[in-house]
Amino acid sequence: MKRRILGIILCLVAVLVLFTSSAAAVSEDDRRVFDQDNILSDSEEEKLQKHIEQIWEKYKSDTVILVVNIENLPTESLPEYCKDFYLQGIKSRYEFLDYGLMIVLNMCDDADGRDYCICGVALEGEESVLGEYFADTVERVTDFQKCLGDGKWYDAFEEVINLSEEFLEQDKTGERFSENNPYKKKSKPMSGTKFTILSLLEVGAGLLFGKGYASKLRSDMNTAVKRTEATEYIDKNSFNITNAQDLFMYSNVTRTRIPTETRSGGGGGGFHSSGGGHSFSGKTGHF
Which of 120, 238, 134 is nearest to 176 (CA)? Predict the structure, then answer.
């Protein structure tokens, strides 16, 4: 019995080893996250990898994340390093990567701080959807730089990847985001609890205001003053007879009806609107 149990355990271990080796091989073949400085946990790498694969399936645009720690690599040289890595380390392995995005962090901390590069990839002669305007927008509307400063590396990468999805989705409409068609940050949807609380506050404020206003109107309309004696209802200077006589006046009164003015409907206003190689475009920064 013990031998049977031991045999089952050994079989399970062997299957687990084979499965792990197979999964690792597949992961290596499709690898998009290259964390050479080990700033991400295994689970964070896996989640980023899965997110990148989803974007590729939907938009046929790839994403590569590269983390290095290289001394004496000038900031202005980072885009060129990014390009070399793409052409030699990525493009040679993944022939379909003609459009995409590269996010590079150099974790070497020099006098100016650490460097990053956000670089869009496109075929030679074409403008990348995720080029310089995209990189500017990342810095303007996301928490990418703040996350880098706080050491939240996974969150920083997710900020860029999430925004890239919005740019790629907009590009499908034929009117990609640009300086002439600027990106507008979407407000986050309000939670149900917050919406309920705000609604109750608004209703309560409206009821209080309505009650106060109604009380004021009621007090303004109540001008009568209670009298205790009949003589108080007589104005002593309103009726004084010194001489009485009958006088009749006759007159003809002609009434002419004034026609009601006819108003024509006003016109509404309207708005009239008028509407073989690879290129790399993006920008660098410090954190």
Answer: 134
Question: Does residue 62 belong to any structural domain of this protein?
Answer: yes
DSSP for 49-105?
A: HHHHHHHHHHHS-EEEEEEE--TT--GGGHHHHHHHIIIIIITTT-TT-SSEEEEEE
Residue range of the domain that includes 163: 30-190+278-286
> Quick one: pLDDT band at residue 139, thresholds 50, 70, 90?
very high
Strand 278-286 with 113-123, pairing: antiparallel
Question: Are the CB atoms for 157 and 52 separated by under 8 Å?
Answer: no
pLDDT at position 264, please?
35
Cα 210–Cα 214–Cα 218 angle in degrees, nearest 5? 175
pLDDT at residue 6 in the model: 53
**For residues 75-95, b (16+ Cβ closer than 10 Å) or e, as one string?**
beebbebbbebbeeebeeebe
pTM summary value: 0.62
In a domain, 50, yes or no: yes
Number of domains in the chain: 1
What's the CATH code of the domain at 55?
Answer: 3.10.310.50
**pLDDT score at 168:** 97
Which tokens go with 172? 């499908």
Q: Which residue has the higher pLDDT, 82 or 232?
A: 82
> For residue 184, is it within any domain?
yes
The pLDDT assigned to 262 comes to 38
Residue 18 located in a structural domain: no
Q: What is the pLDDT of residue 183?
A: 97
